[in-house]
């Protein structure tokens, strides 16, 4: 989950990944509220990966 190579991803795939990660993030947060996850650090890694992808997206769009 930490290895995120965003250098050569086309913008369309980048948007798909962002949406998929955001959906996974919301689901993970929901399940964490119901029942504590075994590894809650996954939530943090997922949130950071979303931020990295959004940064790459903004670099491409400028």
Automatic annotation (TrEMBL):
Transmembrane regions: none
Q: Is the keyword Cytoplasm in the record?
A: no
Q: Which family does it belong to?
A: Belongs to the universal ribosomal protein uL29 family.
Protein name in the entry? Large ribosomal subunit protein uL29
Report the Pfam families cross-referenced here. Answer: Ribosomal_L29 (PF00831)
State the UniProt keywords alphabetically: Ribonucleoprotein, Ribosomal protein
Against InterPro entries, the record matches this protein to: Ribosomal_uL29, Ribosomal_uL29_CS, Ribosomal_uL29_sf
Q: Name one GO molecular function term.
A: structural constituent of ribosome
State the organism of origin: Blattabacterium cuenoti BPAA
Q: Name one GO biological process term.
A: translation
Q: Name one GO cellular component term.
A: ribosome
């Amino acid at each position: 989950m930490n290895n995120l190579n965003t250098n050569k991803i086309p913008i369309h795939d980048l948007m798909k990944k962002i949406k998929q990660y955001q959906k996974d993030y919301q689901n993970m947060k929901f399940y964490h509220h119901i029942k504590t996850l075994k590894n809650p650090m996954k939530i943090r890694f997922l949130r950071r990966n979303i931020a990295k992808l959004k940064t790459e997206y903004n670099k491409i769009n400028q």
